[in-house]
Amino acid sequence: MIIKRGLFLCIGLLSLFLGLLGIVLPVLPTVPFILLAAFCFARSSQRLYDWLHQHPWFADGLKNWEEQRALRPGLKRRAMLVSLASFSLSIIVVPLFWVKVLLLICCCCLMLYLWRLPVINE
Fold first, then answer.
1. 104: Cβ–Cβ under 8 A, 6 or more apart, which residues?
2. Residue 122: what pLDDT?
3. Least CB-packed of 39, 78, 91, 97 within 10 Å?
4. What pLDDT does residue 29 have?
């Protein structure tokens, strides 16, 4: 049991770190990593779980996701626009063709994922 909690804690901390990196790095999506961190913290650390749910950046989105399995339309739109802008800039800047193709594929996969997420009817 302790090993399982420790594993969830490590995965949660890694996911939180990657999610925070995803705020500034275009290749890492923030939302899935924060959701994974919340899932892992719920099984390993009540203190970190509560902190994540009280954090001003993540609290509303996590609450909406846990209660309705959906995002607010504005958050979804913003996530898509920022991701698209970040990937576009990266594709323009990167000199290697195969990296451009890989970034384009990642961008398309992320856009499809975000597009398919349900929205909250306000």
1. 87, 91
2. 66
3. 97
4. 75
- The residue length of the chain stands at 122
Strand pairing partners for 50? Answer: none
The partner residues of 119 in beta bridges, in order of sequence, read: 71
CA–CA separation, 27 vs 120, rounded Å? 26
Whole-angstrom CA distances from 47 to 2, 20, 63, 100 are 16, 19, 16, 41
What are the CA-CA distances from residue 76 to residues 14, 16, 52, 112 (Å)?
24, 20, 19, 12
Q: And the tokens for 18?
A: 């990657």
User: Could you give the angle at the alpha carbon of 8 between the alpha carbons of 70 and 59, nearest 5°?
Assistant: 35
Token pair in block for residue 86: 């970040």
Six-digit token string for 92: 């323009």
Q: Could you tell me the two tokens for 99?
A: 């990296």
